[in-house]
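Many introductory courses stop at the sequence. We go one step further.
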Amino acid sequence: MKKLLYFSLFLFFLSCKTTAISAAEDLHQPTKAVDYFDATRDRKIPVAFYYQKSLNLKKTPVLIFSHGYGRNNPDSNLDYHYLLSNLAQNGYFVASIQHELPTDDLVPVEGKPQVVRRPNWDRGAENIAFVLQQLKIDFPYLDYQKVAISGHSNGGDMSVLFAEKHPDKVWKLITLDQRRYPFPHLSKPKIYSLRSSDQPADEGVSPTLVEQKKLGMTIIKLPNTIHNDMDKSGTLDQKKEILTYILKFLDEY
């Protein structure tokens, strides 16, 4: 009986939280775009912001998003409009970071990913830290007690690394099928992950079921969504499912 009640509530939540999504969401542009510059690293960091201009942003929760690897495509951080614009419509201030620049070296395709990709992840974690620092200057009224860090694939690996380095700065960690960098064995921040149906994580990335339960982690496999359909490539139903889960994760206390 309880399971039936929980399932009914989930369906109700689904119907309430995803009605704003339409195919046109992919055409939405960010509310604002800026190029930050980290002088200590001589590094430009493009960021797209999504938020409601009409909303009083005081104490608005923050979500920092990191895109999947796009071989230095300068618009990779704009490939998640369906998710980021809808999170903004649901009351979040979203900063989507462009991590790779056209002048950057490509990520090596040979060698152990945990070794050859580590410089890319370290740079990404530093980008996240710098953007968070700048947000506190440019938008001091946001709720920095509620900073969610999220990312897809390679951006998820960066996000996990940042949360591992700075657990005190992260309210919730939400990954979309990060496959290489292992989850930290921490109960704080709260950790959530949506997994694809086609690309398993590397050995040791996810804790055992017993460890997940002990740490309070939530890891959910999406049976009808492959890894490459978690960005704008997915169907409307796939986008609704991803958005609904992430809103549910963010709403949990």
